[in-house]
Amino acid sequence: NARKRSGISSNMSSKLMGTTKIAQFSKLLSPAFMTKMASESSENSPGAAFTPKESQNTKKQLIEKILTTKERSGAELEVLKAHLTSLRAVNELLQDLKEHQLRKFLLALTLKTFSAGTYVFRQGDRSDGFYIIFSGRVQILEKETGPRSRIRNETDPSHQVVNTLIEGMVFGERGLAKNKLRSASVYCDISSKLIKVDKKDFERLKGNYLKGMRETTGFMQKTIPALEDLSHQILEKFSFHFHHEVFLKRETIVRQGRRGEYLYFIQSGLVSMSKNSAITSDFAMSHIKRSHELSTFGEGSCFGDEILLDSNTTGRYYYTVTVQSEDLSVYKVHRRFVHERLPHDVAVRLIGAAATKVNFRQHQDEGRSRIEAKTVALENEIGQSM
User: What is the pLDDT of residues 141-166, one digit of tens each?
Assistant: First the structure.
C-alpha cells in the first residue's frame, strides 16, 4: 500500500532501468512490486528472466552505485528505502515521514569514503550532518578524562575509545538535534563508507530523533535504579550508548558459555532463562547433562549483566536467554560503558546487582541439581531392581 501511495510509475522505472537491472533489484523489493515490474519489462524484452539469488555483496554494490549518482529513478529510490528501513536505528527516524518528505530525503543522500586512519570529524567541530555506516566501522573518541579509561586510540593516545560503531548504526545526530558543536571525535580505524545526511535534510527527522531520545532517557530512568539520581542532561548524553533492538519468538539472544560484550534491558516482551547443569549420582555413578529453566521475566528486567563480573575484555554469559513472546524489544549497552563511562558509584551499584542475582541463581541451581540428582539415582535404582 505504501508503494502504491508513492506514485512511482513502473513503466517509467522499467524504461530507466532495463530488464537486467530490475532482476538485480528483485531481492530487495517486495514480491508484488517486482512481479508488476517484471511483467511490464518482459513485454519490452521477450525472454527476459530474473537472476537466481543475489549475494549480499552484489546488493551492496547496487546500493552503492545508486548512492554515487545524483539522478535516481523511482525504483532506485525504492531500493534505498528498503535498505534503510531494514536498519532499525534508521527506520525509527524515518517512520513518520510522508512520501514526498521521504523522497526528498532519499534523493539528498550522499556516500562518503574514508580511508583507514582518518577522522570523519573532530571534537569541537561544527555539526553539519549525521552519518549512517554503510560499510566498515568507526571509533567514538573523547579526550582523556581520568584514570578509569582503559582503551585508547592507537593514533592519538590522548583520546580514549568510548564506543565502536559498526555497519547499520548512526552517529552525529546528537549535535544536530541540540544545535551544538561535536561532543566527540569520530575516527575510522579501517576503511569505511558512510552515508551522509546534511543538516538541512535532518530537520525533517529532528522530531523523530528527539522523540526517540526522550523515550530512551525515560526508559533508562524508570528501569535502571542505579541511574535514577542522574540529571536529565547526563542521561541524554548516556542515551547515545543505548541501542534499541527487536528479537522474534524463540530467538536466542545470549547463550551459556559464549563470550559477549552487551547487557540487555527489556522494554517489552518476555524471555526465559535456562542453564545446562551436570547432574552426578554417586549411587549410579552417572553423569548427566540437563537443561532447565531458571526463570521467566519481562519488562524492566535486565539479563546478560553477569559479563560485568568478568575482568577480561569480553565477558562470558552464565545462562541462555530465549524470547518467549511474539517479539521482544530491548535496549543493549556495551559492558565498557558501565566500566568506563558511568560514575564510579553508579557502576558499583550495577555490578553489585549483577553479583547478587548470580549468587541467588546459583543457590537456586544447586538446590534444583540436588533434587534432580536424587531423582536420577532413584530412577537408576528402580531400573536395576526390575
Answer: 987 655 444 555 566 667 888 888 99
How many C-beta atoms surround the C-beta of residue 318 within 10 A? Answer: 21
User: How far is Cα 186 from Cα 163, in angstroms, rounded to an integer?
Assistant: 10
What radius of gyration do the chain's Cα atoms show?
26
Q: Are 272 and 296 in contact (CB under 8 A)?
A: yes
46, 53 contact by CB (below 8 A):
no
CB 82 within 8 A of CB 28: yes
pTM: 0.53
* Rounded Cα distance, 386 and 101, in Å: 77
Q: Which of 245, 119, 133 is nearest to 185 (CA)?
A: 119
Return the residue matching grid coordinates 556495551: 334
Q: What is the mean pLDDT of residues 314-338?
A: 89
The SS3 assignment for 296 reads: strand
Give the separation between CA 49 and CA 32, rounded to whole angstroms: 16
Alpha-carbon gap, residue 98 to 133, rounded angstroms: 24
Residues 249/327, Cβ–Cβ less than 8 Å: yes
Residue in the structure block whose three cell numbers are 548512492: 67
Angle between helices 31-44 and 10-25 (to 10 degrees): 110
